[in-house]
Design brief:
Elements (H helix, E strand, L loop, with lengths): L4 H17 L17 H20 L4 H4 L12 H17 L7 E4 L2 E4 H22 L8 H11 L3 H6 L15 H8 L5
Antiparallel strand pairs: 1-2
Helix pairs in contact: 1-4, 1-5, 2-4, 2-5, 5-6, 6-8
Length: 190
């Protein structure tokens, strides 16, 4: 089980990448639990999130300076290669000396690099479940990543729904496992 934040981040990127690599040619247009996105839209979204990391973390740029550089289709004709490049660059940016202690200027205000890394790690974990469901792959998430993600999103889960980032939390049965609780926090029925 990953111990450090950087190990958690790397594990979440690997998990999503494993799912991207098994998407069948006919599955890119399949619906996902994210009702506004098909499989390609979902992979494009998570890949785009990774593309933001190097300029924000390594270069100290602002969201306004980056503008719409990562809007639209960032996958091109080889989505797997696009994902790999973005994920590798994102992880390298967070792994650089001092990156996690740096202040990053995000759309909602300044945050430590470590907080940004935690947020994107949890997001990648949840979207791995979304992608797994969409392509009929094993949707069990690693326990360590689930626990990490619960701790990350619990303090602001209601705000995510209010801001439109996720659906409203759904009630889960008493005694539900950690994955079901995480999914429920983020508006998903496991």
């Amino acid at each position: 089980m990953p111990d450090t934040l950087l190990e958690q981040h790397a594990a979440a990127l690997r998990l999503f990448g494993e799912r991207v690599r098994v998407i069948g040619d006919t599955q890119w247009d399949a619906p996902t639990p994210c009702t506004d996105w098909n499989v390609r839209d979902l992979v494009n979204h998570v890949t785009s999130e990774q593309l933001w990391i190097p300029p924000l973390v390594s270069e100290g740029r602002t969201v306004e300076e980056i503008g719409d550089a990562f809007s639209g289709d960032v996958l091109g004709t080889d989505p797997v290669a696009a994902w790999d490049r973005a994920a590798n660059a994102a992880h390298a940016a967070f792994a650089a000396p001092g990156a996690l202690e740096r202040t990053v200027r995000l759309s909602y205000g300044p945050a430590l690099g470590s907080a940004y890394c935690s947020e994107l790690t949890a997001d990648c974990v949840v979207h791995s479940w979304d992608l797994s469901r969409a392509i009929d792959a094993d949707d069990r998430l690693p326990d360590g990543l689930v626990e990490f993600s619960i701790k990350e999103v619990m303090p602001y889960a209601d705000g995510l729904a209010a801001g439109g980032m996720y659906a409203a939390p759904v009630e889960v049965p008493a005694g539900a496992n950690a994955q079901t609780r995480l999914l429920g926090l983020l508006g998903r029925k496991g």
